[in-house]
C-alpha cells in the first residue's frame, strides 16, 4: 500500500491555530456560539481546538461531542452494526451558532446525519462546518466546509487516514493511502 503525506504534525498544529483565529474573527465573544465535535474522530480535532483556544484567548467556550450513528442513512444497511459513541452535550443549541467539527469531509453523509442528530438539542440559528481535510469531488450531498485545513483530490479507491500521537502513532499526521490491486 502506498502512502502520501498530506499534513505533518507541524502543519496540523498550524492548521489548528488558524482555525482558532478564524473562529475568533467570525464569532466575536462566543456568547452565542457552540462547538460540536462529531464522534468519534471529530472530537479529537475539537479537543485540540479547545486546548489551543484557551492558550490564545481565555474565553469561556461551550462545546460538546455529538454522535450521529443512529441518524445515518446507512445504519441498517451494513453487514455489521455500527458502534455508537457517547453524545456529551449539556446545553441547548436553540438559536445558537453551531460549528460542527470533524476530521475528514468525504461524502457528506456524516454531516447530514449530525444535522439531524443535533436538532434534539434545539434549532440552531446557523450551522458552520470545520474539517481538517476536504475531499473534493466525492460528495453525495451538497455540503461544503466553511473552514478547512487542506483540500485534496482523491479517488474512490483512496483513503484519508488521520493519525494522532495520542492514539499510539509516532506523531500526528494525515496520509492518503492507495489500495494496491493484487
UniProtKB/TrEMBL annotation:
<dbReference type="GO" id="GO:0004845">
    <property type="term" value="F:uracil phosphoribosyltransferase activity"/>
</dbReference>
<feature type="domain" description="Phosphoribosyltransferase">
    <location>
        <begin position="7"/>
        <end position="166"/>
    </location>
</feature>
<protein>
    <submittedName>
        <fullName>Bifunctional pyr operon transcriptional regulator/uracil phosphoribosyltransferase PyrR</fullName>
        <ecNumber>2.4.2.9</ecNumber>
    </submittedName>
</protein>
<dbReference type="InterPro" id="IPR029057">
    <property type="entry name" value="PRTase-like"/>
</dbReference>
<dbReference type="InterPro" id="IPR050137">
    <property type="entry name" value="PyrR_bifunctional"/>
</dbReference>
<dbReference type="Pfam" id="PF00156">
    <property type="entry name" value="Pribosyltran"/>
</dbReference>
<keyword id="KW-0328">Glycosyltransferase</keyword>
<keyword id="KW-0808">Transferase</keyword>
<dbReference type="InterPro" id="IPR000836">
    <property type="entry name" value="PRTase_dom"/>
</dbReference>
Amino acid at each position: 500500500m502506498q502512502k502520501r503525506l498530506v499534513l505533518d504534525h507541524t502543519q496540523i498544529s498550524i492548521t489548528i491555530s488558524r482555525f482558532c483565529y478564524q473562529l475568533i474573527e467570525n464569532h466575536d465573544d462566543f456568547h452565542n456560539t457552540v462547538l460540536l465535535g462529531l464522534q468519534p474522530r471529530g472530537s479529537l480535532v475539537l479537543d485540540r481546538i479547545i486546548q489551543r483556544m484557551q492558550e490564545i484567548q481565555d474565553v469561556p467556550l461551550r462545546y460538546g461531542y455529538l454522535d450521529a450513528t443512529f441518524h445515518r442513512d446507512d445504519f441498517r444497511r451494513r453487514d455489521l452494526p455500527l458502534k455508537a459513541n457517547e453524545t456529551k452535550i449539556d446545553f441547548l443549541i436553540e438559536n445558537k451558532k453551531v460549528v460542527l467539527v470533524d476530521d475528514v469531509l468525504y461524502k457528506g453523509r456524516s454531516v447530514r446525519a449530525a444535522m439531524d442528530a443535533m436538532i434534539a438539542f434545539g434549532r440552531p440559528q446557523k450551522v458552520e462546518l470545520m474539517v481538517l481535510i476536504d475531499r473534493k469531488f466525492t460528495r453525495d450531498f451538497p455540503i461544503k466546509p466553511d473552514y478547512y485545513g487542506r483540500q485534496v483530490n482523491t479517488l474512490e479507491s483512496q483513503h484519508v487516514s488521520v493519525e494522532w500521537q495520542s492514539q499510539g502513532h509516532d506523531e500526528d499526521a494525515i496520509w492518503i493511502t492507495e489500495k494496491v490491486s493484487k
